[in-house]
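Fig. S4 source data, part A: sequence.
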Amino acid sequence: MSSIPDDLQPKRINDTTVEFLGIKFVETPVTPKSERTWETVAKPAKLAKVKLTGVDGNAFSLIGVCVEAARKAKYTPEQIQAFKDECFKGDNGYALNTCVKWFEVR
């Protein structure tokens, strides 16, 4: 079994930055998953509009369309992650209800 060469090992630059293969990655603090909910994350000033008619009914399709709308509406990464966490707490129906709660559905 061979060891990984030193030039392929990630190098810590400081407390929040790691360099790997010449690319610098900055670590950002994340709220623990159990604490990310609609109630604990700052709500967006205006709900993003999303059109769900014609979208495949599975949860992943719904979430994908909503996440794209959220990014265009400048939701923060924490808001988007909280939305996804909430969607995955239940079944397809629960995900759809979460979409209606977090977005202005057309």
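Fig. S4 source data, part B ends here. Residues 57 and 69 are 17 Å apart (CA to CA).
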